[in-house]
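Risk mitigation, structural track. In case the binding assays with fe (iii) ion fail to produce interpretable data, a predicted complex structure has been prepared as a fallback.
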Amino acid sequence: MLFTNARIVTLRDDQDYGLIEEGAIATDGDQITWVGPSADVPDVYRSETTHDLGGRLVTPALIDCHTHVVFGGNRATEFELRLNGASYEEVARAGGGIVSTVTATRSASEAALLADALTRVDALIAEGVTLIEVKSGYGLDRDTELKMLRVARQIASARPVDVRTSFLGAHAVPPEFKGNPDAYIDDICLPTLRAAHSEGLVDAVDGFCEGIAFDTAQITRVFDVAVELGLPIKLHAEQLSNIGGTQLAAHYGALSADHVEYATDADAQALAKSGTVAVVLPGAFYTLRETKVPPIASFRKHAVRMALATDCNPGSSPLTSPLLAMNMACTLFRMTPLEALLGMTAHAAAALGEEDRGRIMAGARADLCVWNAQHPSELAYRIGFNPLHHRIFKGAI
Ligand code: DI6
Ligand code: FE
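Fallback model:
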């Protein structure tokens, strides 16, 4: 295919948008083979099937590198209860909190979980997403964790989108192990990780390193099994406090450390050294009405790549709009529109270990977004507006 008459945002490096006015993109199957000014299209590509993009803006397709889109039920009742002044105890007694999602996820069939997840996936696709990371972590028992990961895999057959799974068995301590997180790690989490891996259900291993979840010693035991199995590592770190998760992630050469609101300048340096991507999640920051902004200036200073994602989950981030996440990253975290776009494309790809995606250049995946927009800054600027004209996924419209 030869796509012509496009204003191309190549993001060829991290310095600027890499804009090509009057550009063209040649593809072969699911790969980009050439990109440049229309006037310079090599003769070999001129005979290809041509598709005129009408002078529209073209960017790499969006990538949501941190989601929990597979879960049962929702927490709208809890949201409403809180806003009517209910206390934490009252919410808990009404069956609220993460435990309610675990209960709903355990009792849901695979088909129901998939149908529910697809409503959220469709919202992501409608804004130009072609690659979604999906975590387990609302099962917290062997069968339900495996069920969640199988559903995540099924998303890629049900919709034109790629999926990467992360095993998040170390997300919370389930009620049956209350007060005994170590036994949960030994008896459930680690054996389930091995089982899920042997079924080919795991692309990466994640954990929630936080006072209300697991400490660095417990996460270390999960990571050691990940290393043994040859799986890449990610970590929810420093979301609500600093307990050393970012340093731990860096020590293990993790693909990403996510949330990182409470990370320090020294943590940023550690991420830079290990090449770990900092994934910021403004939807959770907004929903929880947090005030501690991630150390963006430190990430810039130490050249830590910043990604951003929806963190779509029923509790702290019921967000299915990557464009709104970009806007929030700019407005709440003072990231630039270029950083926000890199964060939803090239750097999100890096956070998933998919370095051949998220930029428009020869050899990269032909996953593109065509927008009714003049300039890339419009994508992060507008609130609640979707200018997507169409997606190109694996070279196909
Ligand atoms: N970070 C969060 O904010 C949540 N999980 C996580 O790892 C909250 C999940 C929930 O409340 O359902
Ligand atoms: Fe998360």
